[in-house]
Amino acid sequence: MLALDVLDEKNALKIAEETCEYIDSIKIGYPLVLGTDLKIIEKIKNLTGKEVICDFKVADIPSTNEKIAELTLNYADGIICQGFVGKDSVSAILNIARKKNKKVIVVTEMSHPGATEYLKNVANDMADMAKNLKVDGIVAPSTRVERLKELKKIVGDLFIISPGVGAQGGDLKEVLNVLDENDYVIIGRAIYESENPKESAKNYKMQISTF
Ligand code: XMP
Q1: Which residues form the Orotidine 5'-phosphate decarboxylase domain (predicted)?
Q2: Is 60 annotated as catalytic?
């Protein structure tokens, strides 16, 4: 899953087009949507034929979450929300997504060092909630493989999307030892900031498919 966190349309479309034969899915977030607008999603989808997931880490009260999900899922194939806001807030998003046949992915433990201060302590409970609510997937860290393993055990057949390989130092092989074919490794800067994004995407694809 390519994390396409560039800021302008031209660059985003160029990288998306160059790399799309080597990726399965594209994740965009505030950087690109605030730098352009939600219609960038249609443009990426038309150009690449790939699904686009919006990483908005939605974290509000149920009625506001509902509005954000409604607008986002008019365009995107899925939306990422925070789990720490509780099951009523996550359910509000899930209700909208189910009507539109779209995906909901819940953040459990984030990949950056700060996630060990607070999130790590409640991440297992959030994974449990995600499983009980029957969302589609969770986000879990490639930077802490032991935690990735534990979270995967909790969520069972929900898929995992996992950031942290590349710029954040996660080891691809260790991560692939934990994930299975339904899961996704998220890679951003190591592709879009490389001198040759196409080659970088191709190289990751090769490592993943020959693992
Ligand atoms: P890099 O450039 O580090 O990009 O390969 C990683 C992408 O993933 C996002 N990110 C996260 N998203 N939970 C999330 O929902 C996380 O723990 C997490 N860690 C990183 C980041 O914003 C970027 O798009």
Answers
A1: 1-204
A2: yes
Predicted model pTM: 0.97
Q: What is the pLDDT of residues 115-139, one digit of tens each?
A: 999 999 999 999 999 999 999 999 9
Domain 2-209 classification at class level = alpha beta
124 close to 97: Cβ distance less than 8 angstroms:
no
Among residues 50, 55, 102, 152, the one annotated as catalytic is 55
188 is in an annotated binding site: yes
Q: Is the CB of 78 under 6 A from ligand 1?
A: no
Residue 124 in contact with residue 82, Cβ under 8 Å?
A: no
To the question of whether residue 27 is assigned a binding role by annotation, the answer is yes
Q: What is the pLDDT of residues 28-55, one digit of tens each?
A: 999 999 999 999 999 999 999 999 999 9
Instruction: Show the beta-strand stretches assigned E in 135-177.
Output: 137-139, 159-163
Q: Which of 210, 143, 149 is nearest to 177 (CA)?
A: 149
Annotation-wise, does 5 bind a ligand?
yes
What are the residue ranges spanned by the domains of the chain? 2-209
For residue 53, what are the β-bridge partners?
Answer: 27, 78
Please give the number of the atom of ligand 1 that sits closest to the Cα of 27.
24
